[in-house]
Design goal:
- Among the domains are: about 145-485, TIM Barrel (Alpha-Beta Barrel), CATH 3.20.20; about 665-990, TIM Barrel (Alpha-Beta Barrel), CATH 3.20.20.220.
- The protein has 40 helices and 16 strands.
- The longest helix has about 45 residues, at about 490-535.
- It starts with a helix and ends with a helix.
Length: about 1050
């Protein structure tokens, strides 16, 4: 809503002030210039712009808003931290200030030294002093670097990160256990952390994290490390307890820890080591069951060989597949880091193990140097930070190459901008997909925020390391963070520069908005005086100049725009042209001049949408994206409240005026036709769907069929081509119980081809080897004679409807539904295709749900079979809308979900299927309707169609979105010249409740399109109000009342 209420601010001020002052000179009611002190305002703005921050953009410089928005919502090819507004768009000013203060304090060496001294002094032994010290630590370093004191607080922090587009690495901050009981307690805490991820948003947790010193006494780890070092020196040295594993040490490793031959482990020590191994295996098993990778942290060189031994032993057990579960850690500041990385990775490759590594620089700088020095040996750490950077980049490059070949996975934990840029460039050069889970980036919470957001904006998967636990327990971690922030300040310095830059930018915007607020109040006050004297004239007419009126929209836009993520204060705009477009608007026709899909021009996208509609849509989408509202609404609709006539009437009334009117076209065909006319006037088409499903018997099926036939016949009375498809659900013309029976029989026939189905007609394959079969665990009984008659009636109903569509030349979409009944739905749909799709313009379309793992296999099988039979297959491609129910059903039966494990895989499946079908369209052997709310899928399809030179008006390639969702994408595709439809479900409110519940669930679960729409709508604003202002329909009082809420929000 911001473009209409905010575009050009500063640059038009001089013109407006001059016009006002000119009017006042000829106006007996304006006896002095309106803005005599404007020059001081202008001087003040110049003063702000002269701030000694050379990298900042001048307050009056220009910025392409829509280009910025496009960058925000799409993956960029390059890692860039130039745009601080975009980097910190999800960070409040309070958070920025707090982070800046904490990082600044941590960069003052004397302050850090004092803090470390206090934390290790006797003051901590005094209860009162301890309480004060821990409170100070909690509200400074602790809250900056840690996620909370318990799992609940950590989950809240994780949710905030997830909302910002980042993921989290959960680490319960335990280390240095002293005996087996404390190790067992720590293991239980780690297991709780892993189990808790079930309750968090899917994919929000990227890794769990563990320190081996928390599940194995450190004294034992030192003993084992000594023995491993001695074995490396003397290969004849026998270690009977040692398992075969990957190489742990190299020639360049430090050996000064073990100067004498160590004693063998005692039986008790061997037993304790076995227990430590079993603890790590237990934790790894839990992670494996949840498909949650486990990061094993590196620690001091005195114990690192034992840690690597246990880690590699777990890798041998759990990393036998393409996606590793157990990840070790390499510290690049160690001189032997690269050699050990290469040795272990190549050995893993030979053994068929996928190596998983987290690559860090290191956090034990002081202690390692002091220990080596005390023993009279050179430090195991590189002599300069440049050598550490070089080692890190070489190790990262090596591991990225292994990711490319599929033999390795790496988490690049770095705060260094150059390393991030090198890695991103390397990945891009090798063509590694940015969503590839084997290449991820990570930073500590509270550090390198700019790099995290920059990598996120570049399309890579980025996580923040989230240690949590009671303040006292995680103090060792905090001390190391302070030590590292002092020693490796490059990332912190950059972050502080970026934060300062963004805070100054926000200050400039806030000051200018305050000035403009005061100035506009003065303008309104002056205009009101004039209007009171000339009541017969419209507001702001005559003496206040026509030119002034043309500039007022820019004031409204400027003052109502919030200084947030994408809005530039001084973006240029031709106001006169915009006002003319607003007043002389004509119905939109589909342009053909655009060659690419673009959502840059919000005015063009939403030119056919009124401000009232925009505001209403924005509110509805905002509510539908708010989980508590969706949960409460779902509960109410399924509760006993619906059994009471009074409460039912109230609930249905609320639903009708919110989600129903947003997602549905009306309660009857007449209302749906009016909605269709409005869509047609805006250059879109409609898919009419009478919202019926889940018939229970033949009479209800016949009634539903009659309604569907009426819909098809009604299209004769509507504008030609305004209806692109009719739509129906098989569950509305065939009892769902029968569909389940038929699906069970089809699944069993796929398992056992000798299984005879006498009622079955020849058709395309309806199942593949990757389809879910857990619905049918036992051989089903054959259909009874009555059931055979009923399935034949269902086929006849579908054929009757298809014939009506054929006579009207209106394609029919058959919706996909639950996997329990989908085989039967596909069976009936394919029968109709064989009958009615014999020429190049198919009548019957099936539906493929790309979130199912078997989607691509089934689509290819059916398409190939149709080609062999001389049938033009028609398919609608969707992602899917039965997410919760499918997951719950599979889980209740003890099976893996039939759906892809992540939204990224679903996107990939959808794009693969779309690309396949577009290829078939180019060969005139298929037709496809791409029903998608995803911008990237839309862009991919447009690019593919353009490359294959498919005509944009080709009816065999069309796009569709649900009414009320992805409006920006719909209008963008329309403007690019493609045929675009909105899915118009209609029917009585109560009858289409199942559809509404699924829409709310989908809008919550797959929010990318809704989020983009809400961003675009905030840009596109209240042009109708400006029109009313020009025509005199809006009074000064109305204008002031309209603006005040915006003013207050901006001031805050």
């Amino acid at each position: 809503m911001a473009r209409r209420v905010s575009t050009k601010l500063i640059r038009n001020l001089p013109n407006v002030v001059n016009l006002l002052n000119k009017s006042s000179s000829n106006n007996p009611f304006l006896n002095k210039p309106v803005c005599s002190n404007f020059q001081s305002h202008q001087g003040f703005i110049r003063y702000i712009n002269s701030s000694p921050s050379s990298t900042l953009t001048s307050i009056t410089s220009t910025l392409n808003i829509t280009h910025s928005l496009d960058k925000q919502v799409s993956n960029t090819a390059r890692l860039s931290l130039d745009d601080t507004e975009r980097l910190f768009s999800s960070v409040s000013t309070k958070q920025l200030l707090r982070s800046l203060v904490n990082l600044h304090l941590a960069s003052i060496e004397s302050f850090v030294d004092f803090g470390i001294w206090v934390m290790r002094s006797r003051l901590i032994d005094t209860p009162l002093c301890k309480e004060i010290i821990l409170a100070i630590a909690k509200h400074s370093f602790y809250e900056h670097f840690c996620a909370g004191e318990n799992l609940k607080e950590a989950s809240n922090t994780l949710q905030k990160l997830w909302d910002d587009g980042l993921r989290g690495i959960l680490d319960y901050g335990l280390e240095d256990a002293i005996d087996n009981p404390s190790c067992d307690r720590n293991l239980n805490e780690f297991l709780k952390a892993v189990d808790s991820t079930k309750m968090l948003p899917p994919s929000s947790v990227s890794y769990a994290c563990v320190k081996v010193t928390a599940i194995c006494p450190i004294s034992l780890l030192k003993r084992v490390s000594d023995l491993l070092r001695w074995e490396y020196k003397d290969p004849s040295f026998d270690l009977p307890w040692k398992l075969d594993t990957l190489p742990i040490l190299s020639k360049s490793s430090p050996f000064y820890h073990t100067l004498e031959k160590p004693e063998p482990l005692s039986p008790q020590e061997e037993h304790d080591l076995q227990q430590a191994y079993e603890r790590l295996i237990k934790l790894s098993e839990n992670c494996y069951d949840l498909n949650l990778p486990l990061l094993v942290d590196a620690e001091y060189t005195s114990v690192q060989p034992a840690i690597d031994y246990l880690t590699y032993s777990a890798m041998m057990k759990f990393n036998k597949y393409s996606n590793p579960i157990v990840f070790g850690t390499v510290q690049a500041y160690l001189k032997d880091a690269k050699e050990r990385t290469i040795q272990a990775t190549e050995a893993a490759e030979k053994m068929g193990i996928t190596m998983g590594l987290k690559l860090v620089r290191g956090a034990y700088l002081s202690s390692e140097t002091q220990l080596a020095s005390s023993l009279g040996h050179a430090s195991p750490i590189h002599g300069s930070i440049q050598e550490t950077h070089a080692c890190y980049n070489e190790c990262a490059s090596f591991m990225i190459e292994k990711v490319f070949t599929g033999t390795g996975a790496v988490v690049l934990a770095t705060h260094n901008l150059e390393s991030g840029q090198v890695a991103a460039g390397k990945a891009q050069g090798l063509g590694i997909g940015k969503g590839n889970p084997k290449l991820q980036f990570a930073q500590l919470k509270g550090m390198a925020e700019g790099l995290s957001f920059g990598l996120r904006n570049a399309g890579f998967q980025v996580s923040k390391y989230l240690p949590y636990g009671p303040v006292e327990m995680v103090m060792p971690y905090l001390l190391r963070r302070a030590e590292e922030n002092r020693g490796l300040l490059s990332a912190s310095t950059l972050d502080r520069q970026l934060m300062r830059k963004e805070l100054i930018r926000r200050l400039k915007v806030a000051v200018c908005v305050m000035i403009m607020k005061a100035l506009l109040k003065q303008i309104i006050s002056t205009a009101r005086q004039h209007a009171e004297q000339k009541k017969s004239k419209p507001l702001m007419a005559n003496r206040v100049s026509t030119n002034l009126q043309q500039n007022i929209p820019s004031f409204l836009k400027s003052l109502n725009s919030s200084p947030s993520t994408y809005t530039a204060v001084t973006t240029p705009l031709n106001l006169t042209e915009e006002l003319e477009n607003t007043i002389k608007r004509k119905p939109i026709t589909t342009p053909t001049s655009h060659k690419t899909l673009s959502l840059d021009d919000g005015e063009s996208l939403f030119s056919s949408v009124s401000s009232f509609q925009l505001l209403r849509s924005l509110l509805n989408l905002q509510m539908a994206s708010f989980d508590p509202i969706v949960d409460m609404g779902t509960w109410v609709m399924k509760s006993r409240l619906m059994e009471s006539m009074v409460s039912k009437k109230i609930v249905l009334g609320m639903v009708k005026h919110t989600l129903y009117e947003h997602f549905c076209a009306g309660e009857n065909l007449d209302e749906a036709s009016k909605t269709l006319q409005r869509i047609w006037d805006s250059g879109l088409r409609g898919i009419l769907d009478y919202g019926l499903e889940d018939a229970t018997d033949n009479p209800s099926c016949d009634r539903n069929l009659n309604e569907f036939v009426k819909v098809v016949e009604s299209t004769k009375l509507l504008p030609s081509s305004s209806v692109s498809y009719a739509c129906m659900k098989i569950t509305a013309i065939c009892p769902i119980s029968l569909l389940k029976r038929v699906s069970d029989l089809l699944r069993w026939e796929h398992r056992d081809p000798s299984f005879n189905l006498p009622w079955k007609h020849d058709t395309f394959p309806v199942l593949s080897d990757s389809s879910p079969f857990y619905h049918t665990l036992e051989r089903p009984e054959p259909l009874t004679l009555e059931e055979e008659q009923d399935i034949e009636k269902a086929r006849e109903r579908l054929f009757e409807l298809s014939q009506k569509c054929h006579d009207t030349n209106l394609p029919l979409l058959v919706d996909a539904e639950y996997t329990t009944v989908q085989p039967a739905i596909d069976y009936l749909t394919y029968l109709a295709m064989i009958q009615f799709n014999k020429d190049n313009n198919p009548i019957v379309y099936g539906t493929i749900q790309a979130y199912l793992k078997d989607a691509k296999d089934r689509m290819i099988q059916a398409t190939d079979a149709a080609k062999n039979m001389g049938v033009t297959i028609g398919l609608k491609l969707v992602r899917g809308a039965y997410l919760s129910s499918e997951t719950k059903l599979a889980s209740s039966l003890g099976y893996a979900s039939p759906m892809h494990g992540s939204i990224q895989k679903t996107h990939s499946s959808y794009n693969d299927c779309a690309s396949f079908m577009i290829d078939k369209v180019s060969t005139r052997s298929a037709a496809v309707l791409l029903a998608t709310h995803n911008l990237e899928s839309g862009k991919m399809a447009v690019k593919k169609a353009q490359a294959l030179e498919i005509a944009k008006g080709n009816p065999n390639l069309q796009f569709a979105q649900l009414k009320g969702m992805a409006e920006g994408l719909s209008f963008g595709l329309r403007n690019a010249g493609f045929l675009v439809s909105k899915y118009l479900a209609y029917g009585p409110v109560e009858m289409v409740i199942p559809f509404l519940l699924r829409r709310a669930e989908e809008n919550r679960g797959i929010l990318s399109a809704s989020t983009l729409d809400r961003q675009l709508m905030r840009y596109e604003g209240i042009s109708e109000e400006t029109q009313k202002l020009k025509s005199g329909e809006m009074s000064c009082a109305n204008l002031h009342q309209l603006l005040c809420p915006y003013f207050e929000g901006i001031a805050k």
